[in-house]
UniProtKB/TrEMBL annotation, chains A, B:
It comes from the Eukaryota. PANTHER family: ALANINE AMINOTRANSFERASE (PTHR11751), ALANINE TRANSAMINASE (PTHR11751:SF29). Keywords: Aminotransferase, Pyridoxal phosphate, Transferase. Belongs to the class-I pyridoxal-phosphate-dependent aminotransferase family. Alanine aminotransferase subfamily. The keyword DNA-binding does not apply. Homodimer. Pathway: Amino-acid degradation; L-alanine degradation via transaminase pathway; pyruvate from L-alanine: step 1/1. It comes from Ceratitis capitata. It holds the Pfam family Aminotran_1_2. Its cofactor is pyridoxal 5'-phosphate. Its EC number is 2.6.1.2. This is alanine transaminase. GO terms for molecular function: L-alanine:2-oxoglutarate aminotransferase activity; pyridoxal phosphate binding. The lineage of its organism: Eukaryota, Metazoa, Ecdysozoa, Arthropoda, Hexapoda.
Length: 489, 489
């Protein structure tokens, strides 16, 4: 009955074969967890089994997985989670009163005062209200809690909105405009839902800026085969690390309005801003300040507890704000979410911790502020370190990491290496990434997983390894790169 | 920027309207959270605002939401969750050593020893191995951990398998055979994925038995328009509460094999067996004992931490076992799951608590066994109480609640009531359920949400209210029903 036995059964006996399953499953790609990462997992097992390698550990710089790279959880958040899970801890003197107060508010908002009950499909009302207060304060603009949906990380929210717009229009497939390079959740979901991806290039030479003529070009060229319905903007950028200026956001909003595109603002890295001249502006606040008709535009914004300074990827917390949607359409969105019952209460509690942290004068405040600052300061330091170090490598071109958690350097791969990649039937950047992995244990994701201009090669690395680890990683990387260049130049 | 303002914006200005969104979103229905439940929520708010009603609370008998109805969580599970969330509790003398041991095993299986890290898309390996051990012991048949996927409740697993088979075959829509009555997750997902539902009737006169001639009828009749690909069996039954005999399962397996249907065994209520002569047999164990070729059949089985004696609906834990699947197809399934990153670690920890509970001699054992027995004994008592009480009502026909958490009585609705329902443009059973809700506060789900034979009327109620509450509910129900019959006879 084991998998291995099943391999022997005649394929013709099977109900399912590659010929008769959902073709979108075959088409879709998700590079952040693709072949490089699978190989990294195998190497880890080989190391455990004592196989000799030129390194003693795999450094997973492929995914924005903060705690996996040694980031410590924020105490306040973990205490809030533990209190809602085990209510006997309300009697413990080790738990501060402000955390107990917040846990009590959440439990009072749960049916039967238990996080073991289903919540409303959009989430626990009191937490949705906390989110609305947080957004209103952030933006200086009103926010209605009924526009907030709590989601298990940002991904399910993004998927539910893309699923909502996936109807054919005038017999044409719906199109979703996404940046190149982009985060592969978008390409994977667009494939899964049989939509068309309409890529617009970010301008690498101007620090991955988002330029309106390029949006127009992409929009117009797509229209022969596609009905563009939605525009995805990732700010701060993933994998590119740029932070949009307010002026840029104004122009993007005007563009979306002109072409009646639903705006999806992926703003999960809004707390991760490092460059001194960069500032986060939410699409909502900018649209609000622009006044009519932009203020009345439909807009979906996504946020997560996996990034920022919490980095709680495994808990799966997040929310989306959906504004100005036609009420009948919004009812359909809500209905589609109810069939999945509700997102995990642990994730909802984490969202509460994100949007309603300890306030000045409360017992948890000092520790909370110190822990938060430590995480953000370290990230800032590493953003600079990664930028400076890579820029010193031969044939590397890197933009400043203004925000988010990644660098996306361009590498000039010599023709001999391109030929060697071709011989292995690999994209040159993937070839480079595999060579790096096998000789140093460093796992990055090649640029082809995110998209890049034809003939250019990149990779994405996170800035998440702890600073001492990161220095070791960059040293190893430097040695590898010098040898790679020597070998293939 | 609030929702209310958006109502005023001209609809033509909107990107999204009912005319251009995903039509499957409009089609889908999910009765367990449908209009009756929405009205119940409004009534709760009205009661809070002081509106006078003939009752002072809403009794939510519409959904299998154990903790919401006062069921207490299992201490062992909640301690395990709290320990993995706040590791300072390892120093607490209030936490038993066996729970600490289990928490340590889980944390050692997490990247960075934190539940805040992403897990493998299929879940934390050590917990998948615990699940495999649990299944092997339950079935007396081998189980490979690589066949186990941890999922956020059973629903995402079911949806991912249905999504896998949703390809058209020979130009015909794929069909999924589901019972009538059925759990609306299936009908909702089949709608969402643009598949065809092939309903087979359970035989109400023989305690909702699953009969092969009826499966054959449904299969054959569907084939003009549909290519049947999968067969869903819910055992113990939801909403019907029956438990399949071993002989019945043998016949179903043979039927699925004969017609090359992928078997989906929804076994989330496997611990909820009440009738003295009923016993749970897993589809896997039966197929294994039948030997070749049934032992090599593809089979997907689903389990959840939301039901059984844990009742942790909000945490979102579950798993699926996928056996004998063609390795290339399984790779596509895994790939499709990776794009959603991973299920919540809280849910994965809950699965660990389900499959690896305290063992005899360990410090938590006695309390765990006592708490588990208390929940299951109370459910058994209520299953009998509901059956006996409803059977005494005029015009009610109820089958024994052998298992699961529901009764699905048939009610004879008098012609005058049917006419009154018609005047309100309502199904007669929905009319009955709304009358019950408005006059007693009891929220049930009408049979039309699950499917029923034309011209028959039913409703589903849970057996979850605490026994004293349940008695009050049944008394109120009896009074209401007598008055309803008097009014409309």
């Amino acid at each position: 009955m084991s998998s291995s036995k099943s391999n022997n059964a005649a394929a013709s006996e099977k109900c399912l074969s590659l010929d008769n399953i959902n073709p979108q499953f075959i088409e879709l790609e998700y590079a952040v967890r693709g072949p490089l990462v699978i190989r990294a997992g195998q190497i880890e097992k080989e190391l455990q089994q004592g196989v000799k390698k030129p390194f003693d550990q795999v450094i997973r710089a492929n995914i924005g997985d903060c705690h996996a790279m040694g980031q410590k959880p924020i105490t306040f958040l973990r205490q809030l989670l533990a209190l809602t899970m085990d209510t006997t801890l309300f009697d413990s003197p080790d738990y501060p009163e402000d955390v107990k107060k917040r846990a009590r508010i959440i439990l009072d908002g749960c049916q039967g005062q238990s996080v073991g009950s289903y919540t409303d499909s959009a989430g626990i009302e009191v937490i949705r209200r906390q989110v609305a207060d947080f957004i209103a304060k952030r933006d200086g603009a009103p926010c209605n809690y009924e526009d907030i949906y709590l989601t298990g990380g940002a991904s399910p929210g993004i998927k539910s909105i893309l699923s909502l717009v996936r109807a054919k229009v005038n017999g044409k497939r719906p199109g979703v405009m996404v940046p190149i390079p982009q985060y592969p959740l978008y390409s994977a979901t667009i494939s899964e839902y049989a939509m068309n991806r309409v890529g617009y290039y970010l301008n690498e030479d101007k620090n991955w800026s988002l330029e309106i003529p390029e949006l127009e070009r992409a929009f117009n060229e797509s229209r022969k085969t596609t009905e563009p319905r939605a525009l995805v903007v990732i700010n701060p950028g993933n994998p590119t690390g740029q932070v949009l200026t307010r002026e840029n956001i104004v122009d993007v909003i005007k563009f979306a309005h002109k072409h009646k595109l639903l705006l999806l603002a992926d703003e999960v890295y809004q707390a991760n801003i490092y460059a001194p001249n960069s500032k986060f502006y939410s699409f909502k606040s900018v649209a609000y300040e622009m006044g009519s008709p932009y203020r009345e535009m439909e807009l979906c914004s996504f946020m997560s507890t996996s990034k920022g300074y919490l980095g709680e990827c495994g808990i799966r917390g997040g929310y989306m704000e959906v504004i100005n949607m036609c009420p009948q359409v919004k009812a359909m969105l809500t209905k589609s979410i109810t069939a999945s019952l509700c997102s995990t209460t642990a994730g909802q509690v984490a969202v509460s911790a994100l949007v309603y942290p300890p306030e000045k004068g409360e017992p948890s405040y000092e520790q909370y502020i110190a822990e938060k600052a430590a995480v953000l300061d370290a990230l800032k330091e590493r953003a600079e370190l990664v930028y400076k170090t890579f820029n010193s490598f031969e044939g590397f071109k890197v933009n400043v990491v203004q925000g988010a958690m990644y660098a996306f350097p361009q590498i000039i791969i010599p023709p001999k290496a391109i030929a060697a990649a071709k011989a292995k039937n690999m994209a040159p950047d993937t070839f480079y990434a595999f060579e790096l992995l096998e000789s140093t244990g460093i796992c990055i994701v090649s640029g082809s997983g995110f998209g890049q201009r034809e003939g250019t090669y990149h990779f994405r690395t996170t800035i998440l390894p702890q600073t001492d680890q990161l220095k070791i990683m960059l040293d190893k990387f430097q040695t590898f790169h010098a040898e790679f260049m020597k070998k293939y130049k």
